[in-house]
Write a structure and sequence with these properties.
- This protein is α+β, with helices and mostly antiparallel strands.
- The chain has one domain (9-164).
- Helix content is 40%, strand content 20%.
- A four-stranded mixed β-sheet has the order 3-4-6-5.
- Helix 1 crosses helix 2.
- The protein starts with a strand and ends with a helix.
- 24% of the residues are buried.
- This is GTPBP2 protein.
């Protein structure tokens, strides 16, 4: 389903009520604080099911149909998802962003990895400490820290625009 930040949007099974994967077709500004709190509770359940990790697929119906969202709808859905993640003391990481191939051109779908904030901070802290320890052994003035990161968002968006016919 998800390999190397590439997603096969045409082969999604129906959503399972158990497990660490949740489909969300739309999450708009009409979602109240109460709805965000319910999403945060749901996130905690999905995290428990996935031993500390969960995946949220935006633009996907419960049937597994990747209908996609307009750019505006996608942005709104991400904002709601981030608010819920914050309420659940979690972080969201973009894993994949693509176009629905079975729907209108330009409709976006995305995969977000949800992790508990403390676990993610701890992991990053260990990586930075390791980099810092290595840097200590270099001659003064020759120290440079590098952190591996996924492809730059701008490049992803440009590629998406080309692939979606926008």
């Amino acid at each position: 389903m998800l390999q190397g930040q590439c997603m096969d949007w045409d082969e999604l099974p129906p959503e399972n009520d158990e497990g660490c994967v949740e489909y969300k077709w739309r999450l708009g500004p009409e979602h109240s604080h109460r709805r965000v709190d319910r999403l945060a509770t749901q996130m905690k359940f999905r995290l428990a099911e996935g031993s500390g990790k969960a995946f949220y697929l935006l633009g996907v119906r419960d049937s597994g149909f990747a209908e996609g969202l307009s750019a505006r709808e996608h942005s709104e859905a991400v904002s709601v998802l981030m608010a819920a993640a914050g309420a659940a003391d979690c972080i969201l990481l973009l894993e994949a962003l693509g176009c629905s191939t079975r729907s209108k051109k330009g409709r976006l779908c995305s995969v977000w990895r949800l992790e508990q904030r403390q676990a993610a901070v701890s992991k990053l802290s260990k990586q930075l400490h390791l980099c810092g320890s290595l840097a200590d052994s270099l001659p003064r003035g020759r120290c440079r820290m590098e952190v591996a990161a996924p492809p730059v968002a701008k490049e992803m968006i440009e590629q998406l625009a080309l692939g979606c016919g926008q």
